[in-house]
Design goal:
It holds the Pfam family ICL. This is Isocitrate lyase. One of its GO terms (molecular function) is isocitrate lyase activity. InterPro entries: ICL/PEPM (IPR039556), Isocitrate_lyase (IPR006254), Pyrv/PenolPyrv_kinase-like_dom (IPR015813), Pyrv_kinase-like_dom_sf (IPR040442). The protein is an alpha/beta fold. Helices cover 47% and strands 11% of the residues. Strands 12-6-4-3-2-1-14-13 form an eight-stranded parallel β-sheet. Strands 5-7-11 form a three-stranded mixed β-sheet, with no helix packed on it. A three-stranded antiparallel β-sheet has the order 8-10-9, with no helix packed on it. Helix 4 (76-90) links the parallel strand 1 (68-72) and strand 2 (96-100). The longest helix is centred in the first third of the chain and has 33 residues, at 125-157.
Length: 533
């Protein structure tokens, strides 16, 4: 017997035990409402999605073609529409996640208005968005199941076989998927990190991404001025997140350790070494220093340390920050990643300055010498100029191979004059297969785009405004939006239903019976969209 039918049976028995006081209660309606609200709390969601993510990680370890993907969403509605689209076009939500970007929370969700990605927004905005995303995804479940229940009733009323519809209800695939949630650098010390992680997990997060920048000097990964913390400080925050998961009963919660060391040339703190070649000593070995042979070489307030048997002065900037040696980013990334995985992290995030499979693979291969199953969450960032990057990569490959590039100006390859060229077509082919190539060759388990829906909202709004306020007038909306919604089968064309009016009507009927005042009658203009496209 299916869960749905079992619930009807259970509610029937419960109703019978209550006597006449529950005469108005329909066990079948109660079972339907329960089915439409499978996840009662955020913790239920976190536990469920953690299991999905762990299985996906195992699937990827067995076959790198089984990588996962997500898009960053800045509002619950955007996340809902994304998962409706994934399920409609792919037939399943499997291997598809949501990404919660700290950048977009700062830019879109702060009460201060648009902010840069520097941990300046309210920390409570992050768990609030997680909860909002899952509220909209649960509503997508309720809406789709509601449609199946309507089909069930119609088929039963017409004396038709209901087995196929019942099977769809029994095997319904939820829109609830894992969210990889950005906690930035933890918004404070390790206790602050723990408290915020708890709120995020209680809202539904099964996976928390944390970075090794200084919390109060945090910068976007694609901006200059990044400052990293010693390994001990970062590991304390990884521990804090793990304790938060364990306290709340999400024993298989996932931690993504992000390193910004490839682009970070500064540190705020010199850690104290307890023994030769410990983590602090390894971190300090990357510092840019000058050897000191005489106290007269020091200025007032200078810092002096013993390093590798020598007395040295680390280079300190006027702002008090210490400088790393040039060209040490690669080695610092590798050490960061190995250390994080050996101390509680599950996945890695390496923030790079360009999308280059070879560069990423070089770092991952070095990491895998010590942690063979190391794998990445990778940012397919809109901060990269993908067109220019890949055209230049092809240009450089051609040059190295001795192929004629005389017809191309490397610095101007972004130009539309090259769009139909052999070089541009080869570059586009590499962009198309980048995720599969990087999953196979560079250990990338999860591909995400941090803020795509920020850009799609801007682009679609610009196109609509251009036509609507220009010569096209209302045709800009009708031809460019509504007609496309109808012909592409977007459920959102019936925006009243998408916002919950049909669900509300159903509930009114449950609660009030024939007295229910419903909105979906024959005069509802949404009925105009019941047409053949």
């Amino acid at each position: 017997m299916s869960t749905y039918l079992q619930d009807i049976k259970q509610f029937t028995e419960l109703k019978s035990a209550q006597g006449s006081a529950w005469n108005a209660i329909s066990p079948e309606y109660a079972a339907r409402m329960k089915a439409q609200n499978r996840f009662k709390t955020g913790l239920d969601i976190a536990k469920y999605t953690a299991g999905i993510m762990r299985q996906d990680m195992a699937d990827y370890d067995a076959d790198s073609a089984q990588y996962t993907q997500s898009l960053g969403c800045w509002h619950g509605f955007v996340g809902q529409q994304k998962m409706l689209a994934v399920k409609k076009h792919q037939g399943t939500t499997s291997k598809s996640y949501l990404y919660l970007s700290g950048w977009m929370v700062a830019a879109m969700r702060s009460e201060f208005g648009p902010l840069p990605d520097q941990s300046m927004h309210e920390k409570t905005s992050v768990p609030a968005l997680i909860e909002e995303l899952y509220t909209f995804l649960r509503q997508a479940d309720a809406r789709e199941l509601g449609s199946l229940f309507d089909q069930l009733d119609t088929a039963a009323a017409n004396g038709q076989d209901t087995k196929a519809i019942q099977a769809k209800i029994d095997n319904f695939e939820t829109h609830i998927v894992p969210i990889i949630a950005d906690i930035d650098a933890g918004f404070g010390n390790e206790e602050a990190t723990y408290l915020l992680a708890k709120k995020m997990i209680e809202a539904g997060a099964c996976c928390i991404q944390i970075e090794n920048q200084v919390s109060d000097a945090k910068q976007c990964g694609h901006q200059d001025g990044k400052v990293t913390v010693p390994h001990e400080d970062f590991l304390a925050k990884i521990n804090a997140v793990r304790y938060a998961f364990l306290e709340l009963g999400v024993d298989d919660g996932v931690i993504v350790a992000r390193t910004d060391s490839l682009g970070a040339g500064l540190t705020q703190k010199i850690p104290v070494s307890q023994s030769a070649d410990d983590l602090a000593a390894q971190y300090n070995a990357f510092l840019e220093t000058t050897e000191i042979s005489n106290i007269e070489e020091l200025s007032e307030g200078d810092t002096v340390m013993k390093l590798a048997g020598k007395l040295v002065k680390p280079v300190r900037l006027p702002n008090g920050l210490y400088k790393f040696k040039e060209n040490t980013g690669f080695d610092r990334v590798v050490l960061d990643c190995i250390t994080s995985l050996q101390n509680g992290a599950d996945l890695l995030w390496i923030e790079t300055e360009k999308p280059h499979v070879g560069q990423i693979a070089d770092m991952v291969n070095a990491i895998r010498e010590q942690v063979p199953n190391a794998k990445l969450v990778y940012n397919n960032s809109p901060s990269f100029n993908w067109t220019l990057n890949f055209r230049q990569q092809v240009f450089d490959n051609w040059t190295q191979a001795g192929k004629d590039t005389a017809g191309y100006d490397r610095s101007a390859l972004m130009s539309s004059v090259y769009d139909d060229s052999e070089l541009a077509l080869e570059a586009d082919a590499k962009i198309r297969t980048f995720q599969a190539d990087a999953a196979r060759e560079a250990g990338i388990f999860h591909h995400l785009i941090t803020l795509p829906t920020y850009h799609t909202a801007a682009l679609s709004t610009d196109n609509l405004a251009k036509g609507y306020f220009g010569e096209d007038g209302m045709l800009a909306y009708v031809k460019g939006v509504q007609r496309q919604e109808i012909r592409q089968g977007l459920a959102c064309v019936k925006h009243q239903a998408m916002a919950g009016s049909d669900l509300g009507d159903t509930h009114k009927e449950y609660f009030s019976g024939e007295q229910a005042l419903k909105a979906s009658g024959e005069d509802n203009t949404m009925n105009q969209f019941d047409v053949v496209a």
